[in-house]
Amino acid sequence: MLTLNRLALASLALWAASPAVAQTDPVPLLAQTIHLDAPVVAAAGKRACTLQVRSFGDAENLTYLQAGYTAGVGCGWETALRVSAAELKSHALAGGAAVRHGGSDIELVARRRPWENRSIVLQAGVAQPRTPARGKPCFTLGASAGYEIGSDLALTLNPKAVILKENVLVGVGMGVAARAGSAWTLIADCTPLVTGDNTRSIIDGGKIRRTVYGAALRYNAREFGDGVTVDLGWTTGLGSSTGTSLTPGLGDAKALYVAVTARR
Amino acid sequence: MRSALRLAAFAWLPILLAGCGGGSDTYNPTLTGGGGTPDFTLAVAPATRTIAASGSAAYTVTVTAVDGFSKPVALTVTGAPSDGIAGFTPSTVTPTSKGAQSTLNIGTTTSTTTNPYTLTITGKCGAITKTATAQLQVTSIGGRAFDLAFTGNGSVVADDPNGPLIEGGPWKAFREVRNLSFGASPAIQMPGRLQGNQCVVDTMSIQYLSGMNAFHLDEARSQFPLTGQQKSVYVGGSFLMCIHRTHLGVLSEYACTVPAEAEITWQAGSDQMQFRLTGTVTFADWAPDIVVTGESSLPRREGSPPQTFTMTNCKIHASFDYDAECSPAPGKR
What we know:
The complex is a heterodimer. By secondary structure, chain A is mainly beta. Chain A is 6% helix and 53% strand.
């Protein structure tokens, strides 16, 4: 209940600061960032497909492949399916213990933009992790609100939660998108956790809490068609689903982040 | 079609409000190996404490996480004296791999049975339960251990907040000194023992008389140079040990002069000088002797002007067992 209250309050706080944003640009500023959900939904019949690669070094030392599919349903509704997969690995600790990590995650999300004149989206979903730590379905919640400052800068606030038994993860994602020319946009986000432990120490294996963040340069690849973007950057988050976007790589590992998104 | 999609999207939602399984783990990484399951250990120190009835004792309980254990552990204790109190501060600790500590406080009353007690400390978290044991020895007023501390020319004071240890009580006798230390500035700590069987003590004081009051390093220097190998010098002296008794308003005093020797030893190149004091106390009225030996370290400043080590602020700290059985009746000796 506390989690729901926090999400509701965060959403209400942005109500007044979220004027209507016209979504005529095929690559809007208020789009999904590295870890944050967009504060807008696709129009009815519109589709978006994303492929991502996150290649971690250091303690995580895994490559996560991701795919996402988003479809506008109409009347302010959107559904999204996100899939993430990586190998399973063990990071050895002193004393014979090890941190097991990697695995897969699938999340189905229903997103609703309840007010046409506000850049606020509420969402709820179901995730099915297949990770060393979790194997049962989880309920996810989120709200995303955006605010454009002029035509070249947009801010996004995206509180989100994964309802895990005895360890509810709640993060408040904050993102920025800044146009840097006609084809380039700088995107960055940061999601500190306010509740829950989202990773483990590579020293003693204990549960700890880490902020997830990343930054990338988004290229609007018009040569491949309108609405095609390529992101290149680095991140500490495992993925863009609610669960993986609240989970950093082991030992604060950084990943090379590449994403290709096509919107039709 | 759109309605069907909406319906499908929300058909998932009601089933999982209770949260995802998997205990309190994270979303992704988990801990394995090294014994597999996160666990904790429980330890208590010291293993044994001895207190007099109406006294109190404290134990330190350490809970240490193993394999990433990070849940709160609730602490309880059984086996404590039933008419006393027992509790932890705090009563719940969340251990880390370095250990988290709680203090177990045991309080007794004057009516607490003078038995050895086995305290069983239990740490519980979910299905994991760990125990550790410690001993508590409760002695009677007539046979308990107590500590004496002495500073300067003052009287011996007990560490017992209930007041003087002997005054007004039955005749007691020293049975054993567990720890006897003489102090100076800086302190000199030494183990020792004191035995007796017909001693009545209300207060005890020790006063240095001569020889040991002060001595100069240059005295030692005159006997051998401060070079080369390890050197030693003996400095003799004496001090007075007084034992005062007050019973039924009558003050008695036992005193004896204690010859003592100090051995000063240092190693060339070392900045520490070893100091050892030995002495024997013989009480005229009761047979036991005090034999004290001990050593300490004093800073040495080679090449500096002669230093004076003045035995001021003398301290004696002693722990005694005394036994009513070896005490004569009041008024007799």
